[in-house]
Amino acid sequence: MTFDTEIDRRNTDCIKWDKMESAFGVSPEDGLAMWIADMDFPPGPFLQEAMQGLLARADYGYFCGLESYEDAIIGWMRDRHGWTVEREWMFTTYGLGNGIAITLNALTAPGDEVIIFSPVYHEFAAKITKTGRVVKELPLAIVDGVYTMDFDAYAGMLSGRETMVIACSPHNPAGRVWTQEELTALADFCQRHDLLLISDEIHADLTFAGHTHIPMHVAAPQIADRLVMTTSASKTFNIAGGRTGCVTIPDPDLRARFHRFFNTLDMQPNLLGVALTRAAYSPAGAAWCDALCTYLEGNAAVFNDGVNAIPGLSAMPMQGTYLAWVDFAGTGMERPEFSERVYGTARIAATPGHTLGKGGESCLRFNVGMPRARVQEAVDRLADAFADLQ
Predict the structure, then answer these.
(1) Per-chain mean pLDDT for the chain
(2) How high is the pLDDT of residue 390?
(3) Which CDD domains does the entry mention (predicted)?
(4) Which of 33, 114, 131, 281 could pair with 104 as two cysteines, CB 3.0-4.6 Å apart?
């Protein structure tokens, strides 16, 4: 089990590598892809075995037997996160972007305002807009160098037209793992203002030593009547191509509302995603995940320590995920200038912070889910690109 193995994903129809030039002007021939949130590690052998099993069976028709897939999800959430999930609570969607879009359509109305805590994963705002709802950005505060939610300030920012919150736990882009106290405060905020809550927990498995992810339903069971949980194996095991996510709704009334819309779509799980998820949520997958978290924590230390040694650059401390958040405000440069140094000089494709909402204008997001030698190379390239600030 090694994460140092280099793999070449160029010219394989991999978005991360084959679309980086059109997105950022960084050629995959001499550039580093550190933008879209998937990892450059070989798949775990348990995933390969699952795919070989499908090939050996040679049957790609209609299928049943979803009970073992559901059991794998239930067991994973119980054993790794202390969360008891009932089978009837779960809906399988085509990934979590799809799950969030369905939830917006099912549980809110066009024109409703939907709260996000920015900067945050850009697809939240995209899904809100695409479904005809209105994005309501509430800015995260920075306390002791990390993001936090400032509910005292938020109360005065509300219009009264808000009906839902979409929260990211752990947080993307900054790798923040929310505490019990913070999750309780979020639950209180939702109750006080009569808001539904989508808790997007796609990065739940990727936490570092000293930090524990708490599922929202575990942290605040008192808001089960307004809570939608979204989870997937896709980020942990790099199987987003399986397009399989799980929307979990504990409350029967809320679940019935969701089901009425979901049922109109006539959706069924796909064979590939089911097989990959079942293989991922296994004892072998658990051991691989443990090793992955240790390796990612090492990558984060190499990247953040290296970046923080460059004058004018500041990387926010990471508590989990593989997404590093770097602020270039200290350089005194405007976004076009520091971006050109990263894209043009360092030849690194990173996610522009301004696309993740207010508070991200001077930042870039870097994916460190790759062999450590590439992480060190990225640090070296950034140091060279900003060498004149030394």
Answers:
(1) 97
(2) 75
(3) AAT_like
(4) 131
SS3 189: helix
Pick the CATH number of 63-281 from 3.40.50.1580, 3.90.550.10, 3.20.20.70, 3.40.640.10: 3.40.640.10
Comparing CA positions, the residue from 328, 331, 339, 337 lying closest to residue 363 is 328
The domains of the chain are located at 15-43+285-389, 63-281
Q: What is the pTM of this model?
A: 0.96
% of residues, the chain, pLDDT over 90: 99
CA 173 to the chain's CA centroid:
8
Q: Reply yes or no on domain 15-43+285-389 having CATH 3.30.1340.30.
A: no
Q: How confident is the model at residue 130 (pLDDT cuts 50, 70, 90)?
A: very high
Q: How many CB atoms lie under 10 A from the CB of residue 265?
A: 13
Q: What is the mean pLDDT of residues 84-94?
A: 97
Pick from 150, 140, 92, 132: nearest CA to 116: 140
> Which helix (H) or strand (E) element contains residue 124?
helix 122-130
